[in-house]
Amino acid sequence: xxxxxxxxxxxxxxxxxxxxxxxxxxxxxxxxxxxxxxxxxxxxxxxxxxxxxxxxxxxxxxxxxxxxxxxxxxxxxxxxxxxxxxxxxxxxxxxxxxxxxxxxxxxxxxxxxxxxxxxxxxxxxxxxxxxxxxxxxxxxxxxxxxxxxxxxxxxxxxxxxxxxxxxxxxxxxxxxxxxxxxxxxxxxxxxxxxxxxxxxxxxxxxxxxxxxxxxxxxxxxxxxxxxxxxxxxxxxxxxxxxxxxxxxxxxxxxxxxxxxxxxxxxxxxxxxxxxxxx
Amino acid sequence: xxxxxxxxxxxxxxxxxxxxxxxxxxxxxxxxxxxxxxxxxxxxxxxxxxxxxxxxxxxxxxxxxxxxxxxxxxxxxxxxxxxxxxxxxxxxxxxxxxxxxxxxxxxxxxxxxxxxxxxxxxxxxxxxxxxxxxxxxxxxxxxxxxxxxxxxxxxxxxxxxxxxxxxxxxxxxxxxxxxxxxxxxxxxxxxxxxxxxxxxxxxxxxxxxxxxxxxxxxxxxxxxxxxxxxxxxxxxxxxxxxxxxxxxxxxxxxxxxxxxxxxxxxxxxxxxxxxxxx
Lengths: 278, 278
What we know:
2 copies of one chain form a homodimer.
Chain A: E1 3-7, H1 18-26, E2 29-33, H2 45-52, E3 57-59, H3 61-65, H4 69-77, E4 80-84, H5 95-103, E5 108-111, H6 116-119, E6 134-136, H7 148-157, E7 162-166, E8 168-169, H8 175-179, E9 189-190, H9 193-206, E10 221-226, E11 234-239, H10 240-243, E12 253-257, H11 264-271
Parallel strand pairs in A: 1-4, 1-5, 2-3, 2-4, 6-7
Antiparallel strand pairs in A: 7-12, 8-9, 10-11, 10-12
């Protein structure tokens, strides 16, 4: 009948919209996408099942990306919902499953919610003035890409802020175990703001030439954000070389590199979060 | 006690989050900001009063921008909420009233929701790939600024999409009436996507030189969006010269200029909205 893509928002089960809540109650099957973002204890399958007093089915990456028959076949006959942390078209779009549903002749409805892409406005930085978003990925012994810094420098040149999304690895197969013939998943890994700051310090050294205007230095002020939208959300405004040693607590973390040409009111807001050494 | 900034989302009273709804019920005073965006019939003060079965107080631009005593004084003793269409830190930040509350020693809590800045993801265009947002303003006989096209061209050069927010004029004083000693307000004015397309056509002519790479032409494909998040939301993907004559219906309208280097899946999503002449 209808395939609903429903945003859960960022924090707990109560961050769903009233409309979304109603739809979940009336749907025949409800899936929970369990890989694109962290499911906080407030948004765990258990918490959701308790809140709705109904079965919530897990949907892993494979199921969602292949727009699985299991999810969409049911939607031919009855209402089916896929729940997504944040907004269904936030940091991860769900275009593939949306398009597949349309091809199958199933009407799709999107229930929007807050996502990291707009909730970062609570730092006081104008969403208007953000340039392209970049993604930091985990460095390995052999691969330490710094190509995303090109984009950060371009944003800075244009007087724009940069949101840096930090790498998440969930449900990854353990290669060493696999080579021994055992199928094991690695525990989930979330890049910390401190790790991102470490990458930036290395990149600043390497970029010396391209970074001739010194747009990025170890003293550049950045914003670290942890658990955005949760009750224990933490925002810290500090230098990159300070952030290296700051523990922001449990995931998810993000970092913003504000433009040096911030509006005075943006600066005033950021100063509320100024890091003070204990 | 606590000053709450609560996002209402985009469509109707049911787009509030469950958490937001609970807080509104327990607050001593609830104000509704009534100028930064359109209050749809679904989000009119009447609809809200009916939904919550309580008095909702209007807050005009002056009250909110001056972080009025009326709003914050009450928050010293009891819980007060200011309701905002979209997200409190979406297209319009509420940094001024936030800072004023902090200065007065009043704790502030933000309840996030969807805003135009992330809900445009439903076009299938990746929020990642948006450059700086621009604002189109109404042209007058004597003033026809096209400076924002500079930013659009820069975004296009970098392969980024541009969200264009279109001008809104509400509660404007009628100057002619004022000169006759009468205080009258003009009816609200909302720029249509068609008017924005008309501005683009004029600008493309004027920009010929700077636009030497022909990044913008009358045939450039753009996305017009009307009433985002409402039940009768409309999305049209068409050429600029087509949009001039397309009626998108009641406000609010926005326009996106997608990068020509769209991802194939972005194109596939956009093609769902391809304009067909009747």
